[in-house]
C-alpha cells in the first residue's frame, strides 16, 4: 500500500519568501517603468506564479493589458533577479521543520506543490538544506498544469509515490484551497501566508496559526473524514 502524504505549498506556507519576491517584483516593475509596490499590494498579486504576479501588478497601475513581448521581457528580468538572490532572506516558517520531522517519523511522505517554477523551488529548497525531505517538488512546468487545476496536486502525489486517499494539502491561499477541494483532498490553511482576504473565508478543512497545531492526530482525522 502506498504511504500517506502531506503536500505543502511553498511561498507563504513552507517558506516566508515575501521579502525576496517583493524585492524582485519591485526591481522588475522599475525596469518596466512602473512604480514599486508595498507588501499589502504584493499579497494581492502573488499566488499563481511570477508571470501572473507581474501581470497583476502591471494592470493595477496601467489599467490596460500587458503586451506579450513586454510580459516575457519583464518575466525574464524577474527570474534573473530572483534566481541570483536565492535564498535571500527567505526562511522556513516557525515549527515547520519539527512538523515535517513528526510526519516523516510516522511514515508519511512529504512533497511540495507550488506555482513557483520547479527550478526556482528546488533551488530555494536546496539552499535551505531541505531537499532530502521531499519525495517530489513540482511547479507549473513539471506537468504543464498549475494550481488551481487539481491535477497539479494529484500528479504531485503520484510522483511522490503517495496515496491520494490518504493525503493532506497545506496551503496559504485561495488557490491551494480550491485545488485541494477540487481534488477531494482535505486542506489545512495557514493564516500567516499571502492572501488578501482571511483564509477562513475560503472554507478550508481547518485553519492553523502555527505548525505546532499540525499534529498527527489532526491529519489522521482529516483523512478519515474525507474517506467517509
Ligand atoms: O509564487 C507564487 O505566486 C505562488 O507560489 P506558491 O504556489 O508556492 O504559493
Ligand atoms: Mg502560497
Automatic annotation (TrEMBL):
Give the binding site residues for Mg(2+): 9, 11, 172
| Cofactors | Mg(2+)
Entry-linked Gene3D superfamilies: HAD superfamily/HAD-like, Putative phosphatase, domain 2
- List GO molecular-function terms, semicolon-separated: metal ion binding; phosphoglycolate phosphatase activity
The reaction(s) annotated as catalysed by this protein in its Swiss-Prot or TrEMBL entry are: 2-phosphoglycolate + H2O = glycolate + phosphate
E.C. number(s) listed in UniProt: 3.1.3.18
> Which SUPFAM superfamilies does the record associate with it?
HAD-like
CDD domains in alphabetical order: HAD_PGPase
Functional note? Specifically catalyzes the dephosphorylation of 2-phosphoglycolate. Is involved in the dissimilation of the intracellular 2-phosphoglycolate formed during the DNA repair of 3'-phosphoglycolate ends, a major class of DNA lesions induced by oxidative stress.
Name of the protein in its database record = Phosphoglycolate phosphatase
Species this chain originates from? Aminobacter aganoensis
**Taxonomy of the source species:** Bacteria, Pseudomonadati, Pseudomonadota, Alphaproteobacteria, Hyphomicrobiales
